[in-house]
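Field notebook, page 401. I keep forgetting to write these up properly, so this time I am using the form the group agreed on. The chain and the ligand, zinc ion, are recorded exactly as supplied. Prediction of the bound pose follows.
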Amino acid sequence: MLTKKLPFILFVVSIFLFQGYNSVSASTSYKKLSEVEILKGVVKQGDTASSLLNKYLPLKTIYEINRLSSDIFSLTHIRKGQPYRIILKGEDLVGFVYEIDNEEKLVVQKENGIFSINQEPIKYDVDLEVVSATITSSLFEAVRKSGESSKLAQKLSDIFAWDIDFIRDIQPGDQFQILVEKRYRDAKFSGYGDIQAAFFTSNGTPYKAFLHKKSNGTSGYYDENGKSLQKAFLKAPMAFSRISSGFSPKRMHPILNEYRSHKGVDYAAPKGTPIKTVGDGVITEIGYNKSMGNYINIHHYNGYITSYYHMNKFVKGMKKKKKVRQGEMIGYVGMTGYATGNHLCFRMNKNGKMVDPLKYKSPPSNPIKPGEMDLFLAKIQKSSEIILSVHKLAATDKKEI
Ligand SMILES: [Zn+2]
């Protein structure tokens, strides 16, 4: 009964909050408050700010609002599918709120005949929740089975991308526990915030990651000893695919039909799968070659060069001398050049010598500063307790069944 009533109560509360938010003064009587009407809508194909507002405002005023708001957001850029609200007091428009994206909204308010325009963050109710599962086939499947979206699997794999190769290392029985922020608006789920902590057990080896915001404002993930999980190279240039051929001094070449060495790793993946650079660096070569197809070479600051062959196409804007960031998308899987199927041939060169990318071990970088360690340790203890308490609960549940 109570649960059925809840959405209604929430709705009433939210209207009052909204009115308070729109600067209706505290002394305004209840009767006046009730005169405020909120029209909710979603921008449709062909809608413009003028078509949405000219029922309530003369065109001249709409242009003036647009002129004032163009520093923050131009009303000519309103997009199909974005929610908006028109707030009326009697016949008079006193507010217009347009959601620019998932994070920010444009707020136009009229008070004493004067319009003010602001950009404000969209407020969410944030719940900290524990998501845990045991993998039977893939990480994606396990995350989906626990009732979450594949976006969470992506977030999780990004955190451990330096330590766990989600292509080779994942096995049935691997487990994870995630302490994640889930965002809600009007009691409806509307996406994930930060993963605060994540435990992953891969083939019996436990990995732990804790989010830490440094005093300089940047944030990253660290293990329980305060060592950064971020390393010079990602474990693989793609999040999810299958290794079809490893690094070997000799193998039968599928097209040339003769023994040749294969000094790279082939990742089979569907055409168009995004390819990421494994580390920060500069593009030193980009082009087409009869055997390599569309390829890119990236020179990294630690003396390594990584190469990516057989791409279907490059990401727009990739060119020689362009600086790229670790994890940046550079191209898409294809089968250009000598290739029998869609795959990426990934190669690594150290000081002029080809090396096996699967054997490369990144040295760790940038630990938490000693001065921030106490705060970090207190936080990870709290996160661990939450995760473990839910874990114990789940274990008890199982016993009782
Ligand atoms: Zn290859």
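OBSERVATIONS:
- The chain has three domains: 2-121, 125-231+370-400, 242-359.
- The helical segments are 2-21, 30-33, 49-53, 59-69, 139-145, 150-159, 373-400.
FOLLOW-UP: compare against the apo run.
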